Amino acid sequence: LLNLFNIHYLINNSEIRCEEIHLAKKMSYKYLNSELNIYIYENKIYEGFFYIPKKFITVKYLEDFLDLLENTDAKKNIAFIEAKNTNQENNLKIDYVIKSKNSIIFKVKENTQGVLILDELIFPKEWTVYLDNKPTPFYKANLIQTAIFIPKGTKKVTIQYNPIYFKQGLTYSLISLVLGLILIKIIPKVF
Question: Could you give the 3-state DSSP secondary structure of residue 37?
Answer without folding.
Answer: strand
